[in-house]
Write a structure and sequence with these properties.
Helix content is 45%, strand content 0%. By secondary structure, it is an all-alpha fold. It has a domain of 28 residues. The protein starts with 30 loop residues before the first helix and ends with a helix. The model has no long low-confidence stretch (mean pLDDT 82).
Length: 58
Amino acid sequence: MANGRCRMHGGTSPGAPIGNTNARKHGRYAAEAIAERRELAALLRSMRALVEEVDGQD
C-alpha cells in the first residue's frame, strides 16, 4: 500500500529478513553483479561516445 502498511493486517512491511538466502538464488542483485553491470554500462557509454566522435570527423 502507498502508506507502507499491509492492507489486510495493518502492519508495516519490513521486507525480507536479513540473511534471506532466497534473495540470492540467481545473484542478480548481488553487489558484485550490480558493480559488473555498472562497469559494463560505463564501457558501452564510452564506446558510443567514441563512435559518435569518429562519425563526426567525416
